Amino acid sequence: MFTNKFFLVLIFFFSLKFSDAQNNLYSLNYNLSIDINKTLNTNKKQLNTGLKPLINSQFKHQINIDSVLYSNYRYQKFISKFKHKKVWEKLFVENLLLVDTDDFHLSIDLLFNIAKGKNIVNDSSLSINTRGINIKGNIGSKLSFRTQFFENQTFYPDYIRKKIYKSHVVPGQGRWRSFKGWGNDFAYATGILSMTPVNDFNIVLGHDKNFIGEGYRSLLLSDNSFSYPFIKFMYSKNNFQYSTILSDYQMFVLPQDAKLMAFARKYGSINYLSYVFANRLEVGFFENVLWNSSDSISNNNLDINLFNPVIYYRTFQYSLNNDKNIIDGLNLKLKITKGIQVYGQFVLDDIKTKSDTNIFDSKNGYQTGIKFFDLFNLKNLYFQAEYNSVRPYTYTHSSVYQSYTNFNEALAHPLGANFNELIFIANYNFKSFNIELKYININQGVDIAAQNYGSDIFKSYDNITYDNSLSVGRGNKVNITHRYLKFSYLINPSSNMCLFFEFDNRFSKSETSSQLTNFYFFGLRTNLTNSYFDF
Question: Comparing C-alpha atoms, which of 87, 109, 85, 86 is closest to residue 96?
Fold first, then answer.
């Protein structure tokens, strides 16, 4: 019955008039987004870019994103010197399998991350062995699809393993099982179907991730957590864009007996409104409501207001301090010049008023950042500076089942709350070579024993620790620095296949202990997704 209805829906969409633009879906990969960002920032007409991943139909033929990402000119002279040109084009230029006609486009690529490394401090071997497949395409000009599947076996550095064992998930990649003692074995898949039945209106149905903002991090919605089912409706007209995302999140508790693992579902409803003023300033308004569908003792019926697409109506209806977890926010981007862009975010969880009996202050956070393209007039030299600060207990709720989380990870910043963070990123491309330098400094207050100082967003804020100070950094003060270096050589732009070497110097110091981790990886990978291990 469901299958028949599904095909009827597809027939309906095919029967509609074709839209004017292709419907390609672009990856959330950070390095790929640098080139897109540069192109958008130099464009005379500023477009709405706060909600990601971007879709080609948003650009109305103003920008050819495919030509930005998959330019092949640099390989033409190189390939022409070899015999069997078709074979070399397949290796250095094209997708593994490509079908391209007027009404149908299909590409298939193998995905892999084969890397060896070492933790220099304790002389332990590290490795990543990822194999997968990426399938994407267009049917006509209004229907696009993408699916990915990954199988992984990994041996990570100690601080990542500690995080994995605490959360029971590999960061951003889901559940795992033990592999050869202290390794991790896991698999995951994503899929998206994007439809543009009429001009200016897009529907995305998927099991994947979304991102709101222009920063390296997002305080509103990031791709930090594992993929989740969602449906997204987006209307774009001139400088105006309005989106609604309905999501199905999960969290699970692992007791002593793994067979008794308990899953709890919760639903999220995001409304996001953005507008571009004078082709320079983009202002985005964010509202998210989390509704717990089940807890440890009962199932709850869905509230029809969860599906209300009018932004801030539910905030005024329920108020921020209520049994649902409502989070509001603001996203900003300003194009100063063709080469300079500033951006920022503000997130508001709960508000403290004079009549409140709660002892915690208002739960909020902010982000500010700046980007430079072609810095010092050097083509493809990119620099970004970003500062993030989130107050204690932000994203938490009285019910642990309604924290702003998915699959035991934060839906926003990977650090949770109660932190300040400074990020510097420099990235330079020269032909097929890329070098990236990253410096991250984190100051966070973490819990001591059973005390709740506001960094762990999985804890209920009903049992907070009060010590006459609710400032950022309260609790056991931890300072973490990352000094990261990466060299890579791009082999094939169609699959973003590259040879790479990366080194990370991480030093963590608290009031009670310190830990130094120096580790490196080198190998071959098709780099299409973000993995956040810089925490």
Answer: 109
CA atoms of 467 and 165, how far apart (whole Å): 30
380 burial type by CB count under 10 A (0-12 exposed, 13-18 middle, 19+ buried)? middle
Give residue-wise pLDDT tens across range 493-502.
888 899 999 9
Residues in CB range of 40: below 8 A, 6 or more apart? 46, 47, 49, 63
| Identity at 144, one-letter amino acid code | S
- Rounded to an integer, what distance in angstroms lies between the CA atom of residue 215 and that of residue 342? 10
- Helix/strand/coil for 59: helix
| H/E run at residue 66 | helix 65-69
Q: How far apart are CA 399 and CA 519, in angstroms?
A: 39
Whole-angstrom Cα distance, residue 153 to residue 130? Answer: 7
| Residue-wise pLDDT tens digits, 472-518 | 888 899 999 999 999 999 988 888 899 999 999 999 999 888 999 99
What span, in angstroms and rounded, lies between the C-alpha atoms of 520 and 179?
A: 21
> If one looks up domain 18-63+95-526 in CATH, what number appears?
2.40.160.10
Give the tokens for residue 322: 């209520």
Higher pLDDT, 80 or 455: 455
The CA distances from residue 255 to 186, 258, 260, 275, 398, in Å, are: 20, 6, 7, 47, 21
Output the pLDDT for position 334. 95
Instruction: Give the list of residues 6+ apart from residue 442 with CB closer than 8 angstroms, or none.
Output: 415, 419, 420, 421, 478, 479, 480, 481, 535
Place of tokens 């994103």: 65
53 prior amide bond cis, ω within 30: yes
pTM: 0.90
**What does the alpha-carbon distance between residue 277 and residue 237 come to, in Å, rounded to a whole number?**
13
